[in-house]
């Protein structure tokens, strides 16, 4: 019995406990009743970037971002911990030594002496940045799915009356000569009806994207064909397309029609960004290791840094478009196992880069 008691005492030795705490991957620290940091384990050093000697003796507020500090969060945590004895899994933000902000789960417990007097607090902090990002992406995905379903329903409802309008306009144009009164207005109505029809198809494709029909695909041929489709329209708006296609580019596995749609969407988006002043869109293809790379660069106004995270988000547009072209392009590229990214060098236009895996049949 004495031997067992001795083993328990050894296991509970303060030095042994301190060593175990120091091995934890979580940040574990203690603070005084005045919120001064009194101990700092190895996990805290790794998470925050401060060594123990740099932070022990400093106020706990050094770990708080300005917003949390201004809101008086530490005072609330202090009072709540005293009232309840502890706070568990409280999600908040903290600041590293380099100034970067990250999300944490905080568990804090009041430590009392034998007389019930407060002698400090223990705090355990766990980095939850990755988990919170996944949660936000999942929520955004669910919202996008719902928006796509609603949009597809709207597109379906307007399909029948839109077809009737289009057929009526077409019939009237065939009956009347182009020089007749009202013919110009009819052509405008026909063009706008076609535009609505294209938007309806885009909404349906967003909700229920077509499954790619994979085959050996020559990227250069698809790019050239897509450019030819919109060449006339872009020329009317004084926008020039320049192709710099790498010879001998290996084939990729893809759907020719869908890849052409991606390029057309990028060209039309670039045209809107360039505007009435006119400009140039340069499409370059090349090989990088096991990928075929396509870059579409324009001389437009570029993409503001604040817009960059939303460039491929459905219905987001800074150029007066529907906000679907880039979203559909990203959707198609992803279905092909590729990646798409946007950049906007200062003082230059936008650059969209697509990477597609080269086929190895």
CATH topology of the largest domain: Heat Shock Protein 90
The parts where pLDDT drops under 50 for at least 5 residues are 1-12
User: Going by CATH, what is the homologous superfamily of the largest domain?
Assistant: Histidine kinase-like ATPase, C-terminal domain
Number of strands: 12
> Helix proportion of residues, in percent?
40-55%
- Distance linking N and C termini: 72 Å
Spatial extent as radius of gyration:
31 Å
Overall number of domains: 3
Class of secondary structure makeup = alpha+beta
Main pleated-sheet profile: 5 strands, antiparallel
Which CATH top level class of the largest domain fits? Alpha Beta
* Order of neighbouring strands in the sheet with most strands: 2-1-5-4-3
> What's the tally of helices?
11
What is the succession of H and E elements?
HHEEHHHHEEEHHEHEEHEEHEE
Please report which band the strand proportion falls in: under 5%, 5-15%, 15-25%, 25-35%, 35-45% or over 45%.
Answer: 15-25%
Q: What global shape is seen? A: elongated
Average predicted confidence as pLDDT: 80
Second CATH tier, the architecture of the largest domain: 2-Layer Sandwich
Question: What does the model show?
Answer:
- The structure is a single chain.
- By secondary structure, the protein is an alpha+beta fold.
- The protein has three domains: 126 residues, PAS domain (Beta-Lactamase, 2-Layer Sandwich); 75 residues, Orthogonal Bundle (Helix Hairpins), CATH 1.10.287; 143 residues, 2-Layer Sandwich (Heat Shock Protein 90), CATH 3.30.565.10.
- 24% of the residues are buried.
């Amino acid at each position: 019995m004495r031997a067992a008691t001795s083993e328990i005492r050894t296991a509970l030795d303060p030095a042994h406990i301190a060593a175990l705490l120091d091995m934890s991957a979580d940040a574990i620290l203690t603070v005084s009743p005045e919120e001064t940091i009194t101990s700092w384990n190895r996990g805290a050093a790794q998470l925050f970037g401060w060594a123990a000697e740099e932070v022990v003796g400093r106020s706990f507020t050094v770990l708080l971002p300005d917003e949390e500090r201004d809101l008086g969060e530490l005072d609330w945590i202090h009072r709540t911990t005293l009232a309840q004895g502890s706070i568990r899994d409280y999600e908040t933000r903290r600041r590293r030594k380099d100034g970067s902000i990250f999300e944490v789960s905080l568990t804090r417990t009041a430590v009392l002496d034998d007389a019930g007097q407060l002698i400090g607090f223990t705090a355990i902090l766990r980095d939850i940045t990755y988990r919170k990002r996944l949660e936000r992406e999942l929520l955004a995905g669910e919202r996008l799915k719902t928006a796509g379903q609603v949009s597809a329903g709207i597109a379906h409802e307007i399909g029948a009356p839109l077809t009737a309008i289009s057929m009526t306009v077409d019939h009237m144009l065939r009956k009347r000569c182009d020089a007749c009164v009202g013919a110009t207005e009819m052509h405008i109505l026909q063009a706008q009806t076609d535009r609505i029809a294209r938007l309806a198809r885009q909404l349906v494709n967003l909700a229920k994207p077509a499954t790619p029909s994979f085959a050996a695909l020559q990227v250069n041929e698809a790019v050239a064909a897509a450019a030819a489709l919109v060449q006339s329209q872009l020329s009317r708006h004084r926008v020039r397309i320049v192709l710099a296609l790498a010879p001998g580019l290996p084939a990729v596995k893809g759907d020719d029609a869908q890849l052409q749609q991606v390029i057309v969407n990028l060209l039309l988006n670039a045209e809107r960004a360039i505007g009435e002043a006119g400009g140039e869109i340069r499409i370059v293809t090349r090989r990088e290791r096991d990928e075929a790379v396509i870059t579409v660069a324009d001389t437009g106004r570029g993409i503001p840094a604040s817009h960059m995270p939303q460039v491929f988000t459905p219905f987001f547009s800074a150029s007066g478009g529907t906000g679907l072209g880039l979203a559909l392009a990203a959707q198609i590229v992803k279905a092909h196992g590729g990646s798409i990214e946007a950049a906007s060098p200062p003082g230059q236009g936008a650059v969209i880069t697509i990477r597609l895996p080269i086929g190895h049949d």
